């Protein structure tokens, strides 16, 4: 078994993935989690959560000036979401590829949005757009005690 030195823990890439309220209401939680799980990344945090308005606004603060911002906040707070933290080398960009384009009609078949959604305002899932935002968003949505460090038994079958 590998023991990860504390110093290198900071370097491990992390992404914040969230099943949005439409994904939860439509019963797509298992399907969406399954795509990341099968890819081979490591799940380190998972919870069902009702997002308060101030958290939604902080999460999407870069979009505050956009005309769709109020509707976006209503959407994200309209019902429970499923919050996830995933980690692994290259996880941020790879998760964005698994998720597909923001507009589900432009998203390739085989991607989550390409397969499961039809509109930008109901695009079922969020994924961080950079490693920096991955760390920022995980810190925003999770308590430190909710993040679990563990060594998957299959690690040596996923990476040589
Ligand atoms: N969004 C929207 N209308 C737009 C652009 C974005 O409702 O014209 C919503 C959509 O839910 C999107 C979220 O705002 O997922 C964040 O936008 P961003 O550009 O960051 O897209 P993402 O990173 O989610 O693909
Ligand atoms: Mg984004």
TrEMBL record:
Protein name as catalogued: Uncharacterized protein
């Amino acid at each position: 078994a590998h023991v990860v030195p504390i110093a290198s823990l900071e370097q491990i890439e992390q992404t914040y993935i969230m099943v949005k309220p439409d994904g939860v209401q439509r019963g797509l939680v298992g399907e969406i989690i399954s795509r990341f799980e099968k890819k081979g990344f490591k799940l380190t945090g998972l919870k069902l959560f009702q997002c308060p308005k101030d958290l939604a606004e902080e999460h999407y603060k870069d979009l505050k000036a956009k005309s769709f911002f109020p509707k976006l906040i209503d959407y994200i707070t309209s019902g429970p979401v499923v919050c996830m933290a995933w980690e692994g080398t290259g996880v941020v960009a790879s998760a964005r590829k698994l998720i597909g384009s923001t507009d589900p009609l432009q998203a390739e078949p085989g991607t989550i949005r390409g397969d499961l959604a039809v509109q930008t305002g109901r695009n079922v899932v969020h994924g961080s757009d950079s490693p920096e935002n991955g760390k920022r968003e995980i810190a925003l949505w999770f308590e430190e005690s909710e993040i679990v460090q563990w060594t998957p038994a299959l690690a040596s079958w996923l990476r040589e």
